[in-house]
Structure formats: structure tokens, C-alpha cells
Amino acid sequence: MNEKVIKNIVMTIDSGTKGVRAILFDDVGNELGKSEIVYDCHIIDILLT
Prior knowledge:
By secondary structure, the chain is mainly β. The protein has one domain. About 15% of the residues lie in helices and about 45% in strands. The radius of gyration is 17 Å and the shape is rod-shaped. It starts with 9 loop residues before the first strand and ends with a helix.
């Protein structure tokens, strides 16, 4: 078996006005996974009108 052992994982978080995104990277910068949640903007639309 030739399994790669990952010693460190880095998670970046981007919190913006329309949502939140997170991306996981391994030791050498390869992307391991990502996820995004978009905010429900109906309340913002009501407040701006």
C-alpha cells in the first residue's frame, strides 16, 4: 500500500456579503474540498427599498 500521509490541513474562510465559503488545502496546496453557503437576502432587499 502506498498511502500519502497529510500532516497539515489549512482551511480558508471567506465571509462576504452574499455568503460564506470554506476551502481545505493539504501540505503542498492541493485543494481537498470546498463548501459554500449563500445567505437568504430577502431581509436585505426589504431594508434597502
